[in-house]
Each structure stands twice: as structure tokens, then as C-alpha cells.
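Hi, here's the filled form for the chain we discussed.

Project: internal
Contact: R.S.
Residues: 366
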Amino acid sequence: MGVIVQPTRNHHPGRWWHATDEGRFQCNLCPRRCVLSPGQRAFCYVRQASEDGIELTTYGRSSGFCIDPIEKKPLNHFLPGTPVLSFGTAGCNLGCKFCQNWDISKARSQDRLMDLAMPENIAQAALAHGCTSIAFTYNDPVIFAEYALDTAHAARELGLKSVAVTAGYITEEARGEFFAGMDAANIDLKAFTNDFYRRQTLSELGPVLDTIEYVVHETDCWVELTTLLIPGLNDSPQEIDELCGWVMDRLGPDVPLHFSAFHPDFKMNDRPRTPLTTLVRAREIALQAGLHYVYTGNVHNKDGASTWCPGCGELLIERDWYVLGRYQLEQASCQSCQHPIAGHFQAQPGSWGARRLPIAIQTSRA
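And the returned structure, exactly as it came back:
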């Protein structure tokens, strides 16, 4: 990664842009490819054109830090039971009407009082609090990629892992460097129709599918997928079957898939919460399609939250919300039948449990 450049006024030089013939600057970080004149901000709001190029305006500025269970990201096959230091910034490059973190992702950078912390400070705080990884989450780390990557580099220097919780809306030019810096990612596959992506997220499905295939097949980054099922919009058995078929055909059976429950929020308060029966049905469809690891989230469902051996059907990792119970893995294999279990596992699981611990890294404000 090289030397971490300290920002000026929290404005940090962007890495993915080019000048146009008209004297403007095109951002090449996400598929929107916003073209900006000096002083203009991109759709995400946190990338701004100066006289010299495009800058990230939220480098070093976080919306807050919290230690979470890794299962909350959600990642069920990456260091189970361990604590992860989580943070985000402001803004987003999608326009999801159902955003569950809209107060952060839709915020303007100057609208919030933000904790000021440089990458080295974050990595040192994670280590001091006994975390095994750092997660870039709450809003999409793609839009603060320079900050995330520098933090990931500082984390690796201390033996810590890095996790991206992302919608995967990133260009081919940027995705190689971005995911090379990540040890694990949970990528949102928000639906399986382009109409949903256009109407509900103001984006396109194709680039997301390209990103998922690239990360699974071309990188060492561990990947799990999440689909938030919204009643009447993306929860039909046909669409779920098509989504699961694509995962099976293009990624293989060992990529974990999480179906999460929607709750009314932001600009989508006219829809009911997702019934548990919908999630259970979606999980059954996925298992019938041949996927090995399928989970239900945002609901209390121990069977759907736990990991089961695809070889013999034994309960391998019992989960009650974020609390682990029975743990029957030995060297990443089922203790009963020795079937290998995809993922990254320690000899013994962590014991962080369901705790959520906000922390302060620095008291100064941007």
C-alpha cells in the first residue's frame, strides 16, 4: 500500500479519477462515474472535485466506533465468536429507499459531529480492545476506499484482519485494489432483478453480480452474501429460486447466503416487516438449490442461524442470536464425518457473545 498520506482538512487525494477534455474530472470508483467541475460533489456526496482532481472529504472522520460480534456483519464462517471493531463515515453511492442505516449513509459529511481518527489510531485501538478484525460498515466503504484501505494496511501491520460490508457497487478499475486489502466481505445482493435495483436503489444489478464473481473467483477475500427480503418487492419464490440458482451456478455451493428480515424505515414505511415464514421458505429454496450454508437474519430462529454439516447434517455451530453454543468443528471439518467446512475458523471459537460496546478512539472533533 505504501506510505499513508495524512489528509489536509480531512480532504484526501482520490485514487480513481481522470481529467476530461472539458476541464472536468470523472470519478472512476463506482459505476456512476460522476463527472464533476471543481467544487462539485458526486452522488455519494463525500467525493468532491478540486482544481487538481477528486478528493475524499471524509478521510479520518468516522460516525462512531463500536465493538460488535463478527456475526452481526453478518459473517458466520469468518472467525466465529470474535469481536470486530466497526465504523463507517457518511454518505453512500446507492439511493436505497429502504436503507436501515439511513441516518449515517444518507448524512451529509458536515451534518454530523464525527470522531477524528487516523488509520494507525484505529488499528491500535482494535488491538488494545482484543479485536481480531476491523469492519468498514454502517455505510458503504467503497465511497471511503482510501480511508478503508489505509486502515486495512495499518491493521495488517498489527496482525489484524479487515472486513468490508458493502453493496459491491464498484468499478473494475477499483475493485482489484479494494478487495486485495480485505480479508472478508459481506456483499449485499439486494434483489435479482434490474428493475428492483433501478427503482429501489437507483443503481444497476449487473455491476454487483460482476463484483461478486470477481471477489469469489479472483481474490483471497472470504465472501458471504446477504439479501434483505422486502415483502412484495423481492421475496417471491420465483425470484429467490433464480437468485439461488445463480449463486449455485456461478459461485458454487459453499458461499454462505443470508436472508435477512426487513423492517420499515427511511422512505419505505408502507411495507410490513418480513414474516419469519418468508425467511424460512427462502432458506428451504436455497437448500433445495444445492447451497450448503443458508441463514436467516434479523429474527430469532436458532435453526436458521446455526451452521449444519452439508455432509451428515450434524449441528456444527449453534447460534442463538449472536451467542454461540455447541461448536463441533475440528480443523475446519465436521467432527462427526470430517466433511470440510468452507470458511476461516480458529481452533476454538471466540466468546464475545452479543455485546455491543461503543468506544471512543479520540476526543477531538473534525
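Let me know if anything looks off before we file it.
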